[in-house]
């Protein structure tokens, strides 16, 4: 037994040393980078505490859970409501709790501290505005899939977005029995049809002038840094939409010989053989890893 204990302890110790080596390597890569491209998916916000299920959902949506049998905010987002009054009663709360009720979270702050002195850019599929709330520069963020804080025409009849904070808050205050008053149902000012949250759910997603500007900035960032020490820093990107962040990051790392790929994701963290020598993948909680990376005492 004693021998087994000793062996296990040794294994743990070796694992710790291995983990430390990996984390120090990430620090070194980031420190020496000319540019850092953050690619962020849902796992980053989940790690930051913005979970779509569990207590956070049950505490804030009990009336909707009772009425519709909803199980989490993700699937509830696809619920086929019969009326606009019911739809916006739900969606105002969904938007509020994910966009207006939360300030900057610790995990995003840690990420910001890691890159704020660097030449960075953010490509994200998250729609919760966390990067902006944390202090990342607007000019350096491309949120490809929309923003909870914006409404658009449901049919995309014109390319304009509308800030929704005031109306969302009013919908929450004035809703009763999971319905908002008809007078608060948002109407498209151009075609008179329904409005929708600016989320890429179908082909009617509106990409306004700012979206195209951000897309251009993303292209320029890649162009300017493709021959430099560019680090692709992928956080919490799953396999829902790998074509936006994950696959391009792999391909560009492969094509550009000075590039390096870092992936942190709980459950799915790996890189193809072609780039394995210029990759570090950590299967773990992003918040915990960022906390260790931010801890100056560990810098060697
Ligand atoms: Zn319209």
Automatic annotation (TrEMBL):
* Entry EC number(s): 2.3.1.286
> What is the enzyme's main class?
transferase
Keyword Ubl conjugation tagged? no
Superkingdom of the organism of origin: Bacteria
Question: Which keywords annotate this record?
Answer: Metal-binding, NAD, Transferase, Zinc
GO molecular function list: histone deacetylase activity, NAD-dependent; metal ion binding; NAD+ binding
Protein's UniProt keywords contain Metal-binding: yes
Q: State the InterPro entries in the record.
A: DHS-like_NAD/FAD-binding_dom, NAD-dep_sirtuin_deacylases, Sirtuin, Sirtuin_cat_small_dom_sf, Ssirtuin_cat_dom
What protein name applies here?
Answer: protein acetyllysine N-acetyltransferase
Gene3D superfamilies, from UniProt? SIR2/SIRT2 'Small Domain, TPP-binding domain
> Where do the Deacetylase sirtuin-type domain residues begin and end?
16-300
């Amino acid at each position: 037994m004693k021998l087994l204990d000793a062996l296990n302890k040794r294994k743990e110790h070796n694992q710790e040393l291995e983990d430390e080596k990996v984390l120090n390597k990430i620090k070194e890569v980031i420190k020496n980078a000319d540019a850092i491209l953050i690619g962020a998916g849902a796992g980053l916000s989940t790690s930051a505490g913005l979970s779509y299920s569990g207590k956070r959902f049950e505490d804030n949506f009990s009336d909707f859970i009772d009425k519709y049998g909803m199980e989490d905010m993700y699937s509830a987002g696809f619920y086929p409501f019969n009326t606009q009054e019911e739809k916006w009663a739900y969606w105002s709360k969904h938007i509020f709790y994910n966009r207006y009720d939360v300030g900057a979270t610790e995990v995003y702050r840690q990420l910001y501290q890691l890159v704020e002195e660097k030449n960075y850019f953010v490509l994200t599929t998250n729609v919760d505005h966390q990067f902006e709330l944390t202090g990342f520069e607007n000019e350096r963020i491309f949120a490809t899939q929309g923003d909870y804080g914006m409404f658009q025409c449901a049919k995309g009849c014109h390319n304009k977005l509308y800030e929704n904070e005031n109306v969302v808050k009013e919908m929450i205050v004035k809703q009763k029995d999971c319905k908002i008053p008809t007078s608060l149902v948002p109407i498209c000012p151009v075609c008179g049809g329904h409005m929708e949250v600016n989320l890429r759910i179908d082909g009617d997603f509106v990409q306004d002038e700012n979206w195209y500007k951000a897309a251009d900035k993303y292209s320029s960032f890649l162009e300017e840094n493709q021959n430099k020490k560019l680090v692709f820093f992928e956080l919490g990107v799953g396999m829902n939409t790998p074509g936006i962040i994950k696959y391009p990051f792999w391909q560009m790392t492969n094509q550009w010989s000075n590039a390096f790929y870092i992936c942190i994701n709980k459950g799915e963290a790996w890189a193809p053989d072609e780039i394995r020598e210029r990759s570090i993948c950590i299967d773990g909680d992003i918040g915990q890893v960022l906390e260790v990376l931010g801890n100056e005492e560990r810098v060697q």
